[in-house]
Amino acid sequence: MINIENIQDLRNIDKAVRRVIEKHLKVTGKSPTAFAKEVGIHPLQMLRYVNQKKNFRFDTLMRIGKNAKK
Question: Domains of the chain by range and CATH?
């Protein structure tokens, strides 16, 4: 778990987010496209994130967290 207490802690956000999303895809067995549709983002965003190591904007991350099913 990432604990953000000071400015230097921000350097770990991307690794933590990637770890959570990749773990979720593995555990659920969902494809990146299916998961993107479930959480209400464009599938190409998720594919670029997973396959090309591109980044998400914070509002996209919040949408994923809000719409993801446990």
Answer: 7-67 (1.10.260)
